[in-house]
Amino acid sequence: xxxxISLKSTRARRSDATLSSIQYALITVSLMLVLGIAKPAFxxxxxxxxxxxxxxxxxxxxxxxxxxxxxxxxxxxxxPTKAVAEAAVEAAPVEEAPEALRPSLRRALDxxxxxxxxxxxxxxxxxxxxxxxxxxxxxxxxxxxxIIGIExxxxxxxxxxxxxxxLMQVMPNIHLxxxxxxxxxxxxxxxxxxxxxxxxxxxxxxxxxxxxxGGLQHYGGSxxxxxxGYANKVYAEKQRLEQxxxxxxxxx
Length: 252
Prior knowledge:
It is built from eleven helices and no strands. It has two domains: 1-48; 103-247, Lysozyme (Orthogonal Bundle). It is mainly α. The termini are far apart. Helix 6 (120-137) packs across helix 7, helix 7 packs across helix 11 and helix 10 (212-219) crosses helix 11.
C-alpha cells in the first residue's frame, strides 16, 4: 500500500515537472518571436532618425486626418492682428450702392445741369435721393426735383433770410424732430437728409390741406393765396422737367 502511494506521488511530481517544462518552453519561444519581430523595427527606427511611434488618442487622430493644404491659409496660421482686422471688417456695416437713375431722370438731370449751371456729378446724388424718396412716399420724383429747383436752385448750402436751409429750404427749428438718426451734426445741409425731411414736411401739408395743390401752397408759406401762385410755379417747373425727359436732348 505504501509503495502504491509512493508510486502515485512520484508520477504526480513527474507530471507537474513536465507541465512546467512545457510552459517554460512556450514562454521562451514567445519571447524569442517577440524579440525577433521588434528588433528589426526598432533598429530601422533608430537608423532612420525617426522617433518611436506614440499611441494616438482620438483627438490626435482627428487632427492628423486633416490635410493642412485643404484648409484656407488663415486656418493654418492666423496672426492676432490679422484676426482682429478681419473681425472688424465683418462687423462693419455694409453700405448699399445707390440705385441707378432711370433714363427719364437721367435726361432731366442733363437739362437741369445746363439750365442751372451745376455739374452733373453734383446732381446725381440729388436725383437719386428724389427717386428713392419719391418711391417710398409715392410722390413723383419730378415734383420733388421741381420744388428743389424753385427753393434753392440745387444749392445744398442755400439759406433764406428766415433761416430755412438746404435743397428744400427746411426750417431746422421747426422740423428737427423729422431728422433720421445718425444724420450728422448738420443734417439740413446734407442733400439726402434734407430731401427726406422736406418730403416728410410736404406729406404732412398734403394731409392737412387735403390736396396736393393745398399742400404745396402750405409748403411754400402761402396757404391762403387764392391764386395758388407757389403751386403753379412748382407745376410749371415739373412740366419743363418732364418735357426735357421726353426730348432727351438736355434742352427745354
